[in-house]
Write a structure and sequence with these properties.
There is one protein chain. Helix content is about 25%, strand content about 30%. It has 8 helices and 17 strands. The N and C termini lie far apart (about 60 Å).
Length: about 325
């Protein structure tokens, strides 16, 4: 058995793999290439062979499919047990989870059972060396995340025990092109789910339709506290509608009640990478920039010429959004 691989917990919801898990498999491939090891996925649920097959072209060498009808929905005890058993058997050096509701619940349970460290809500992962008390640890996982309210970026290491584990925010890892014909294997592991593991049971799943899709948006028009009032924020919404864009917002705008939290972009909101991001009345705190700095094109509108948002903007407009946005809409409609 080949040890020291990079493993990803592959989250599935109603039989469909979560986007963040695919993002993590792509990052795992990068880390594994750096380490000269394989990529493994851990997939729990029933009737998932078709989903597993779709994952192999992302450079996955092995999908460990733990199958049982009772694993169709996430429940803590059986998921924790089978993941702990799998990790002990496969002995990976790195295990990654999406920083979703499921990942944030499952990861700490596994870390506690294995008595290893876990870094939450990472925004980057790298491989490097670390010296501690005269001992040099080679090729360990750098777990990178904002800290102290986003005012610094911390690099955290846990070199003394394996696996090194982290949860990773959705949308921060880039998808890489698939490799058609990549030769990976799917190993089905029949689970034995005894009554002692079924202390809770999912009786019904009620889902609320998502009305905001920031992650999938190609254009986002986002507003900040600089909008001042809901009436002014409505102008930002009008610009978004004119461009066929999604509406985003800074945390300050959400906290001020200008827009719902579903629109929040940033460290405590959604991480996005649209082709065009228009920031209206957003100062550009590090927390907000952490969620949108990798947009392909950024246009910033702000009355303060020294606003931090201009440091990352490709185009900056110093002016009042109440004047600039109507001019934007008029110019776009005239051109259209």
């Amino acid at each position: 058995m080949k040890k020291n691989n990079v493993m990803v917990f592959v989250q599935q919801d109603d039989g469909t793999v979560a986007d963040v898990s695919i993002e993590l498999l792509c990052k795992a491939r990068e880390l594994a290439d750096r380490l000269g090891v394989d990529v493994e996925g851990a997939l729990l649920g029933k009737d998932l062979r078709g989903q597993a097959v779709k994952l192999l072209p992302y450079g996955v060498d092995r999908i460990n499919w733990i199958s049982h009808d009772k694993l169709a929905h996430y429940t803590p005890l059986p998921y924790t047990k089978f993941m702990v058993d799998l990790i002990k058997d496969r002995q990976p050096q790195i295990v990654l989870y999406g920083a979703t509701t499921t990942g944030r619940d499952l990861g700490p349970r596994i870390a506690s059972a294995l008595k290893v460290g876990l870094t939450a809500d990472c925004t980057d992962l790298q491989i490097g060396d670390h010296e501690l008390a005269g001992t040099v640890y080679k090729d360990i996982l750098y777990q990178i995340r904002p800290a102290f309210g986003g005012n610094i970026i911390a690099t955290i290491v846990s070199p003394e025990k394996k696996p090194q584990m982290a949860t990773v925010r959705e949308g921060v890892m880039k998808l890489t092109p698939q490799r058609p014909g990549y030769q990976g294997e799917i190993v089905e592991i029949k689970a034995d789910v005894g009554p002692e593991l079924l202390q809770s049971e999912v009786l019904e799943c009620v889902k609320e339709a998502r009305t905001v899709n920031l992650k999938g948006a190609q254009i986002i028009v986002a507003g900040g506290i600089g909008a001042g009032t809901k009436e002014n924020f409505d102008m930002i919404i009008q610009l978004a509608h004119a461009l066929g864009a999604e509406v985003g917002a800074s945390r300050a705008a959400v906290d001020a009640g200008l827009v719902d939290k579903a629109h929040q972009v940033g460290q405590t909101g959604t991480t996005v990478r649209p082709k065009l991001y228009i920031a209206c009345g957003i100062s550009g705190s590090i927390q907000h920039r952490a969620g949108m700095a990798e947009s392909s094109r950024i246009i910033a509108i702000n009355t303060d010429p020294h606003a931090p948002i201009f440091q990352i903007a490709h185009y900056g407009i110093v002016g009042d959004l109440k004047e600039v946005i109507p001019a934007f809409i008029k110019a776009y409609k005239n051109k259209a």
